[in-house]
Amino acid sequence: MGTMYGYARVSSKEQNEDRQIIALTEMGVPEKNIFVDKQSGKDFNRPQYKRLLRKVKADDLICIKSIDRLGRNYSEILEQWKQITKDKQVDLYVLDMPLLDTRREKSLLGTFISDLVLTLLSYVAENERNTIRQRQAEGIAAAKARGVHFGRTPKPLPENFYEVYQRWKMKKISVAQAAKECGMPQTTFFHRAKQYEKSTLRNEG
After folding, report:
1. Active-site residue among 11, 40, 174, 199?
2. Residue 43: pLDDT band by 50, 70, 90 thresholds?
3. pLDDT per residue over 122-173, tens digit each?
4. 94 closest CA partner among 128, 71, 127, 126
């Protein structure tokens, strides 16, 4: 058997990777062989993960706490699994799912079982993420329907806004001049002017 390595990832610098590192060291991975990224899976440009892939050789072993440490979604997890186990001929062991251990059985059947379990788990994991996102979207839509507003409250309009708006609307001044008089960027003045027009039309209706 080759060298044993570990990989841990947390999604932000505020999160703590200790739980993963403890689990890896308890498995027998030397601490000096554990590579840690503090970066979201959303951006897969992970320097420590890339360093690990450059370092490992055939018959080495990479241990990870859970399968989602490998990638952001179903297809990416499968792609990384293939790159490690097939292209690099390196073994993989997922601590949270002992079935995902490519050392167990080097036969065709053993490989088939590992690949099948991985495919199912990756699919389930992505479905769970999609379900969470869908529930969040539905919750936000329901809250908006109840009149709940999200985001920052816009700053109150300057006292001279309506007078400046009327002169701009009558083409007496440019949008640049109007924005300058109101002390706001041109895009902000234009946006607030359109909002004012819509609210005026609603009130008239």
Report:
1. 11
2. low
3. 676 667 767 777 777 777 777 777 666 666 666 788 889 989 999 998 989 9
4. 71
**Domain CATH for 77:** 3.40.50.1390
pLDDT of residue 24: 93
Q: Tell the burial category of 119 from Cβ atoms under 10 Å away from its Cβ (0-12, 13-18, 19+).
A: middle
In sequence order, what DSSP letters do the residues of 36-100 get, joined into one string? EEES-TTS---HHHHHHHHH--TT-EEEESSGGGS-SSHHHHHHHHHIIIIIS--EEEETT-TT-
- Residues with Cβ < 8 Å from 164, sequence gap 6 or more? 173, 178, 181, 182
CA end-to-end distance (rounded Å), the chain: 78
Number of domains, the chain: 2
11 a catalytic residue: yes
| Residue 47 contacts residue 53 (beta carbons within 8 Å) | no
**What is the C-alpha separation between 125 and 131, in angstroms, rounded?**
10
Is the whole model's pTM more than 0.70, yes or no? no
Instruction: Give the pairing of strands 4-10 and 34-38.
Output: parallel
Closest C-alpha to 3, from 67, 52, 66, 65:
52
Range of the domain at 109: 4-125
User: Tokens 């062991």 appear where?
Assistant: 93
CB 188 within 8 A of CB 155: no
